[in-house]
Amino acid sequence: MEGNVTELASNLMRILAIIIFLGVILTKLSKKVKIPDVVLYIAAGIIIGPEVLKLIDFKEYAVVNQVILSFGAAYILYDGGREIGIKILNEVKVTVGLLATVGVLISTAVTGFFAWKVLGIDLLYAMLLGAVIASTDPSVLVPLFKRMNISPRLKQTIISESAFNDAAGAIVTFAIIAVAEGGSFSAGASLLQLVISAGGGVVVGAVFGYILHKLISEGKMGMLRGYTAEMVVASVMGAYVFCEFIGVSGFMATFVIGMMCGNKGMFNFVVYTEAQEMHEKFKEVTISMIRMLIFVLLGASMNFAIIGKYWLQALIVVAAFVLVARPVSVMLTVPLDRKAKWNIREMLYLCWTRETGVIPAALAGMMMTMGIPNADIISAVTSIAIITTLAFQASTAAWLARKLDLEVAAETE
To answer: Taking the CB of residue 124, how many other CB atoms lie within 10 A of it?
Structure first.
């Protein structure tokens, strides 16, 4: 047993070394060829994974894979929260709320309708497919829009939606599964569950964030000042795990911790400068490696036997998802926020920011494990949605911002 554990550990280190080394090379390459790094990571994962070159296979490391996905998404959302100015978020809170709730339901319904017609599966499972891919991906959107010079309110709306809609997408998914397994659907109960999940995450994040900053700030309680990077990691992990234990949104909690970190002045937090600088460097390196691991492993885990069987129908459904479901959800919700006064160029841009990634992939994988009927089709469409949205939408985000004249000078942010 000990020998087997040692062998597994050595193999794991070999896989991680390959991914990180390859990820660094692809990161440099992406800057030269002007293609988003995540697209290259997924392509690399497909090539070196068990379907092609068989250099890496992560099937024996399900727990490690889940840790990478869960902590990675949580830490990236923490970083996304740091980008959010609470005063600006207050201006667009209605838009974010509508997109993350009503928008998810509209996207689920429209995508589900097309899946029902194109794939010929039962309407209930078609709606399940729509729910699985309804949420956007913070692992892509946060790093992408951090670097883009668009208006703060547009940038923060996109990042905030990616944090808020994960809970809604997961709740709709589990509600449909419950119906499929013989239960009943209650709109009121689902809405209450969403409020509890998101609201509970906000409360947990606020408590953990307050304690964190009191411990690392200058002042009487700052007994851990100087250890900002270490304490942030511990707080992100602790908040996420605690939320999982009590049944609320861990991603929401880590996002709130990030918001408190990014708005220190509002909460009168004063952090030791040198420790803060060390934290910034540590954070950037950590997120860089997390993204490499998440997306290379995502590519390596794609089942091309299933994708090959349904690729044409999946492409049609994904085209409807991108070109119909998202625009309809934006146009039916965003104009309702009269206070934000969105113009047509901004709304068109929101229609195109629809990247799919880690959360939908995790939900699709869970369907396969649970043996849900039509899970193979759901997995195929999810894989195609991830590849398509990352290849086309993420890679054209900066170009479209320029074409729609949405760029602003960097110093205005």
So the answer is: 16
For 407, residues 6+ apart whose C-beta sits below 8 A from its C-beta are 148, 149, 150, 401
Q: How many CB atoms neighbour CB 58 within 10 A? A: 20
Residue for token digits 């709130």? Answer: 256
Q: For 259-376, list the strands marked E by DSSP.
A: none
Contacts of residue 279, defined as CB under 8 A and 6 or more positions apart, other chains included, come to 228, 229, 232
For 10-65, how does the pLDDT look when each residue is reduced to its tens digit (9 = 90+)?
Answer: 999 999 999 999 999 999 998 898 787 888 998 899 899 998 899 998 888 888 98
What domains are there in the chain, each with its CATH number? 6-412 (1.20.1530.20)
Tell me the C-alpha distance between 382 and 376, whole Å.
10
Q: What is the pLDDT of residues 99-117, one digit of tens each?
A: 988 999 999 999 999 999 9
Whether 333 contacts 98, CB under 8 Å: yes
Distances (CA, A) of 177 to 237, 271, 321, 372: 28, 46, 21, 8
